[in-house]
Design brief:
The protein is an alpha/beta fold and about 300 residues long. It contains 12 helices and 9 strands. The chain has a 7-stranded mixed beta sheet with strand order 5-4-3-6-7-9-8, sandwiched between helices. A two-stranded antiparallel sheet has the order 1-2. The chain is elongated. Bound molecules: glutamine (GLN). The site of glutamine has 9 residues, from loops.
Amino acid sequence: MTRPTVGQALVDAAGKLRFAGIDSPRLDAELLLADAVGQSRSWLFANDAGSLSKHAAECFDRHVLRRLGHEPVARILGRREFWSLEFEISPAVLDPRPDSETLIEAVLARVSDRSANLRIVDFGAGSGCLLLALLSEFENAFGVGVDRDVAALEVARRNTARLACDDRAFFVAGDWGAALAGPFDIVVSNPPYLTSYEMASASPEVRNDPRVALDGGEDGLDAFRVLVPDLPSCLTEGGLVFLEVGAGQAQAVGEMARVAGLEIEAIACDLAGRYRCIVARFGRNNGAVEKKRLD
Ligand code: GLN
């Protein structure tokens, strides 16, 4: 059997993906084929008339079959870009969403000194994307990522090595804030927050994420109920908390934070203009976190 050219393989696969109702069939076909041949997308355009090796053709067929089953491209490739860094992902971790970059932006908007000697903790760290993205911005910061799933911790540790943060990021098993004394300057968390209704109506793509990373119980707030009361005891005076929230949850989570003794400083919006990140402070704003320097 003659093997298809790069161009034909793309046209065929994009047609199948379009027929299956995939949103961006051509782009997805290109990303999957680029991975199968071990080259960049631009290589595909330059080699449109070249024929695929047997190995690449088989690998591409397997990728396309998975995409036809609505597995997201990032899951098929096992990697996702977040904050312009490449992260390994596995079935044990949430596929990082661009929405979560709102938290990174919110931290940067408050702590302008990039050489600040910050202590950061990430609760429910998953792939480690929040903590490692922050460490990429704050060169003197160090951080602890907590997750109760050891399979997720393994992925986070590989991402730590991949991003050369071994000496500044530590991923440990734990249940939210229970095991950590701190004190930390900054807490970030993207806990599971989908409601039971959202879980039941999630798209096939979202169903590829681990349930424990998404399911926030009936009203989506179960994880916040456990995590938020622990926050003050993890924080230094003047320390800051950045919590990702789902649609319609900002007010309820803000109120929990206030009851726990935190002061709400801001609610940051994502690129779609939805409230996405609660910013709260513990104690007096003494400027300690903002001006923290290595002496
Ligand atoms: N933002 C994710 C989604 O809508 C949910 C992430 C989470 O529960 N933390 O699929």
